[in-house]
Amino acid sequence: MELINSKYCFSLYKDLFNVEKPEATIDINQLYEIIKYGYLKDEIVAIQTATNEEEAKRLKLSTLPCVTLSGIFSHRDKNSLVKHSGLIQIDIDHVTDYDTTFNRIRKDAYTYVGFRSPRGKGIKVIFKIEANEETHLSQFLAIEKYFKTKFKVDIDTSCKDLARPMLLSYDSDIYCNPHSKDFVKKIQEKFASGVIDILVAT
If 163 and its partner were Cys, which of 44, 78, 83, 200 is the partner (CB 3.0–4.6 Å)? Predict the structure, then answer.
């Protein structure tokens, strides 16, 4: 029997400095287990209790593994995609009221996975999308608008990058809804004479 989350696979890298051949290919079940059961608890505690921002950043960059959530890659760059995973990451930084914001996002029908960021001040969310390199950006733009409209929050625009690495974390309260809805809306960007025309498709 194949577990329901096993079809969503992506590349695992040792840390943010490693961009060459990935360490392994893992799935959502494995990502959930790593985050929930404290595989990285010591590393996360060290980051969150660091005496200054510089030390916290150094530890985050050098001690935490990361995944290219949106797919399996032969090399960690957008031109080396082997297979799109059908997932996209969403980063919400510097959340003021964490519990209220997280609970609202967790109840959303599109939220597949949600957990606390390594620094402990942000939220990482995973949505299911169309497994298509060509529509990845247009789906990100639609998700960006969705979060702004529904939750009144801005998401990190860096996540539009197909090969964007997601740092793994520790959060015993990680949320996962295997039956979340696929987000299929798209926003197309058309550039003509320096003017951006936004078209919404469903």
Answer: 78
Query: pTM for this one?
Result: 0.91
- Joined together, the tokens standing for residue 154 give 């801005």
Nearest to 146 by CA among 117, 192, 105, 114: 105
Contact between 16 and 40 (Cβ < 8 Å): no
Task: Give the full edge-to-edge strand order of the sheet including 66-68.
Answer: 24-27, 9-13, 66-68, 165-167
Nearest to 28 by CA among 175, 184, 185: 175
Q: Where is 166: in which H helix or E strand?
A: strand 165-167
Strand partners, 142: none
Integer angstrom CA distances of residue 171 from 36, 102, 142, 153:
5, 13, 28, 22
Taking the C-alpha atoms of residue 15 and residue 62, their distance in angstroms, rounded to an integer, is 6
Strand partners, 155: none
Retrieve residue 72's tokens.
């399996």
